[in-house]
Amino acid sequence: MTVRVLFDAIESHEFAAKVGIASSRSLFLGIVEADISYRELYDLVRRDNYAAEAVLARIKRLSELRYDRKFQHPHDVALAVYCWIVFRGVPVYSSVAVDFINSTNDTWWATKIAELISLRISSASDSWSMIKLSDANIFGTRNAFEFFVETSALTKEIDFLVASALDRFQVISPEQMRNFNFASQITLGSHSRLVDTRSANSISSSVIDSGQ
Amino acid sequence: MTVIIGHGTDKDPDYLPLSTKNKRPIQNAQQKEKSPEQLRAAVEFAMALCPGITLRSLSATYNCLGLVFASRRTCIDAEHTEWIMSDDEYQVVQERKDVERGDLVIYRNKKSEVTHVAVVWDKCLDVETGKWSFYCLSQWGSDGEYFHAEDEVPVWLGTCSEFRSERKYH
After folding, report:
1. Does residue A33 belong to the interface with chain B, where contact is any CB pair within 8 Å?
2. Rounded Cα–Cα distance for residues B105 and B117 (Å)
3. Interface TM-score (ipTM) > 0.85
4. How close does chain B come to A21, measured CA to CA in Å?
5. Which domains does chain B have, with CATH numbers?
6. Tens of pLDDT along A171-181?
7. Which of A118, A198, B63, B146 has the highest local Cβ count within 10 Å?
8. Distance between alpha carbon A206 and the CA centroid of its chain, in Å?
């Protein structure tokens, strides 16, 4: 099948209805990955760089689509699927795909998949060592509603830990971490806890509680 | 690449304050409504797969766990089912004959992960076989609320694994 035909299948109401019965991200991906259209497009993307670029272009086009803002983005599911295909087939393009999704309003599955990919990208970085959940480095910024996390153990458990403790957080690269002036920029919101497991030369306290 | 994660937490604009009996916050988020065309397509798809079902309501703002644990107000990821049931003191009903209307039907996949939750709407005894069967109510993903037999759900929603109840007799 051609890329165009596969796009039509994945963007159809029937496809959206089929995967729309999922009530968790893992089930959503399970249904998607078992689908023949997904598998064919995934195989194409892995074999042919042109197909990969076509999928990226399609994500961009759908993300810029005008639609009735009273409702969800009409291609939420397709955006999620294309983003996952890019991540699985051509990981080097993943961050571009995720950026398109992040710039798109009113998505549900696409947002969830972009979030998962972001976490996996950060955990795949070879200069990041594996650390336990309790050892996650969580750094605040001047804005109490943004936090940086350095970890390669971003599982659903840490997602819950951070989600329960913090407002929002961002994943940053080790290079950015090295250049970041933590001491002057740490601000914590209520219930937040700052944990540092890096070397003793970085931040003096290993655990800083907001005390609020 | 800027990454914002923490979907469904209390700072998510689509989050509703929601806790278990133990006052543990439950991550959740209200989905925006789907267009009428999308919703109609979802019903057609469901009816084609499972002709015995009856549509009760058609809205995408909640999912199966949201129906059960949040009065149809929001979506809760099925991955949270186990600890929510534990906090809310749901127990496994050992015998099918003891299942009552209002109890929960838990569906799981081959990996024993919870894939779907339904509410027992009615029960029926087959006098010839002596077996109980159950008629259920559940939201399928976020694509419509249906009355259905316990085993009449799309294959992706798994199979009925157990019945749970919070009933108490004081």
Report:
1. no
2. 6
3. yes
4. 4
5. 36-165 (3.90.1720)
6. 444 454 555 44
7. B63
8. 28
